[in-house]
Queue: 4 jobs
Job 1
Amino acid sequence: MSDIRIILVEPSHPGNIGAAARAMMNMGLEQLLLVRPKQFPHPEATARASGAESVLASATVVGSLAEATHGCGFIAATTARERDQNFRVLDVRAAAARIVEESRRATAAVLFGAERTGLPNEELQSSHVLIRIPASAVYPSLNLGMAVQLVAYELFRAAGGDVTTQLPQTSSSVPLATPEEMERLYTHLAQVMHEVDFRDRTQSGTHLMDRIRRLLQRAELDQNEVNILRGLLTAVQQRRHPAGSQQRNA
């Protein structure tokens, strides 16, 4: 499963990095990316990898989540707590089926947050779905290494076709828009909203763009669809500005 990235965001314990690498090796996953790890490389990571040193050796350390997801299409993020209802949440088995399906047309990614805090909402903005791992209500907390193992197992099963909750085939030949392409769309949309004075008129007046982002992330736009929307936005701008005065968008 070379087209699926496992991304650990700010892991604080090197042993968990090693455990994640071992889980990946067990289940045929190769791409491990670490965003601002507290300690890596580290002897404990190597010890906990227990034979999966090749995954650690090829792990990539980056300074931001944007770097880690660069070039990806479908992105899923794990969560252990309740989130805003505007996020789409899938059971781990259904999510794994979807991730494997999407990885056949562009690199897919699975995000895991820090051991104590998980992923903050701002780091979920590029995600299309959240993954929920069912656990006992008495003690639902999972160790990072355990969470990676469970997700990796479901990905392995999905890749082998042994999944009872397989989602309908929805992939097309056109890749999903990358996080960078989506950010350019959001920037363009915000610019046009400002030009036409379309503002958040609710009492707080601060959540409109976040809601729009989540709506479009749930829509899982492909590259052609992003180009259509940006073309529409450009047409709106051209109708509002005299010929030759339109600033070019990135």
Job 2
Amino acid sequence: MRWKLLRRRLSVSAPRVIVRRQLPWPLRWAAAAVMLGFSGAIALWAFELGKDIAGLDRQARAELGQLRAEAARLRQERDQAQSLAHTADSLLKAERAAQEKLALQLRQLEARNLSLQADLGFFERLLPAVPGEPGVAVRGLQAEPVMPGRLRYQLLLMQSGRPGASFSGSCELTLAGTLDGKPWMLTAPTRPQPVHLKQYARLEGVIEHPPGAVVKTVQVKVTDGSGTVRTTHTIRL
């Protein structure tokens, strides 16, 4: 039996044996990767060479430069448009603020005009309408010392008579009292103050007098252009 097996192994009909060298699988994967990388590099080189030969790369670079210049120009135009828009918005806001301010001033002037018209109507009702020559009256004379030797006064002159008639004349004030225990009088100003009015006129000012004088009365005298006394008014302090 053993002889048969030995003869079979040594004879022509014995099975063939092939000896192969086995490489580790990491080395096989690395070799495959190197081959793939080398093939990809060759393909990329061939592609770039083909583009260079065909002139596609130069054309793409020129188009890219044009596109960049166009983008820069568009950005500049956008910035200019935004600047103009901001300037226009600022001008519009300033114009609106100016219009609102003018509208407020107009309302204030209208309110003041209405107040003046109401005051004028009130003053006109105070004086009786007397036909003939215009008459002048002193209304609301006030006087008060502001400091030793100074007296502040305010008065309102009104006239009645023909509508639209005017009055021209002068006004002077006389202070009376005592100075060092003796009677004292002062007419101010030195020259009568000119007066011209159609309906009413407001006069005010400060009269200087000796600091030691005691003012007891203040008299207002209004004369016309010929020097005729038209009215007088006296108050006591």
Job 3
Amino acid sequence: MTSASDLTIAFDYLIETDADFATALSVIQPLPDRSKPPGFKTLTEIIVEQQVSLASAAAIWKRMTAAISPFTPETLLKYNETELRELGLSQQKAKYCRALATDILEKRLILSNFPELEDSAVIEQLMQVKGIGRWTAEIYMMACLGHTDIWPAGDVALQSAMGHLKGYDVRPTIEQMDTLAEPLRPYRTIAARILWRYYVDVVQTEKRKRT
């Protein structure tokens, strides 16, 4: 979890670097704590959250954690793909969860080594697991490893928030997002957290008012 003093330093830097972040901070609620414990369980949860609504992901995750106890690679692998699908997973995600569990048990992926590695090495190792792409790797690094300069440019909510804040008519592309965020180093993780909060408090609120 980022300390209050670290957040203040990051906020000051972001505001000085990009005045639009002063606007965002003036209209959003305090940033929620997005930190989660590192390990197999949380990484599996992030896989479940891929490309579905938060509500759908939460419902599936509730069923999974109720059934798979303790939530370990060994216990998960007792469930075949059909049984995992009965808990709400798609066929692909059932494969992905089993692949992650297998890679950990067979020591192709050693999560406990990650704190010693550079960002690029963590991303490379995670992306070797079937079903883990850049977004999943980046979210894990932000939430579980406390990395302060991660920028998941392909995240749709992040793109929507940045586009709204900058007055764009359409969502920025991944390339545009990377360009916009380059000056925000070394606090791109904090910038992303601000924009996610801005998306909930401002972008979604405006959408609800229009419907």
Job 4
Amino acid sequence: MTPIYDARQLGKGKMAVLGFQHLFAMFGATILVPILVQSYGLPLSIQTALFFAGLGTLFFHLCTKFKVPAFLGSSFAFLGGFATIAGMYEGVDPQTKLAYACGGIVTAGLMYLILAAIVYKVGADKVMKYLPPVVTGPVIILIGLTLAPSAVANAAMCWPLALVALAIIVACNIWGKGMIKITPILLGVVGAYLVAVAMQACGITNVDGSPLIAFAAAPSWIGLPDITIAKFDFSAIMVMAPIALASMMEHIGDISSISATIDRPLIKDPGLHRTLIGDGLATSLAGLFGAPANTTYGENTGVLVLSKVYDPLVVRIAAVLAMIIGCLPPVAALIGSIPTAVIGGISFILYGMISAIGVRNLVESKTDLKDSRNLIIIAAIFVCGLGFTDGLIFSLGATSITLTGLAIAAAAGIILNALLPKENA
């Protein structure tokens, strides 16, 4: 199938459908972050997360000259920070703790600007010398592999339903024609949801006994997101700000993945400094008003791979839809009722596609896998990324900093690539 870089040729209706497809891809992970933060006792709003994910995505596209088809959703990297802050400040109410955490997120987002300034000053080419395909390829592979357990866990709630979603996606992508071929994720969601309705009517439940579809009644048809204005406290900043080091590593991996997917040198045009600025400011904007940090989403990169529609305009449509849904509780509740197993079936393909992009990156760059130097770098990246499943925690007095396995892997690859001599050196 020929890639489509200008979706306007498809017409407004089809572009809207493609936008919904990207929306479904990011929805589950984006709302899961506030759900998990709520379990720590902090009142982070799902609607707020959705609204600022959409707004942050639009802001990111503005900063990157509307050239990067990336969606920014809630970042999981900061969950450890939220959990730490939830246990701090004895006697302080949860709303104030959330405000302190969001102040830390604002600061973390601003740290992106420091790296962006360095990239702009020395040039992306010099920075990318430390990030050759032998580093970025395995890191991209890891992005998919580290997400894989969540896909299996979700699918395991009801394997038959997950397999239905998976089968629809595969059938549409392999044998479909026209719009069917470029909207396999959306069709997989809708088709599997209808099957779930029928299964639930027959008394079938998830393996834990919970209903396949749990629709929560919305309090009203229209409701603006809950806003929590950030407050700045040094201890909270010391918890949250260093996490930006990990999320920036993931950002570079994601941008490299998108570049490989759409066959465009995004690191050079619009430039890595612009993508960092867009991601950082979107994160600071979200934190300023009580939303979780944003990050580029691998799920939507998987959609790009399957649909072959690379026009950033489609992603911006999804961003606008996310903002609208953030103000429409019933719609958010409807999409939130998508069975967990369906999300798992979809993730099977999306996460695997991300890893496949990393493999393709190594192949197309003709990385010599007979070179022991390259093998050592790749081996270290894989072991760090898959071995540090709970990350690495550094204690700083009463606070702690958690580096994700992916961040550790990226750092290991960069360091080894810089230190190990090349055979022809």
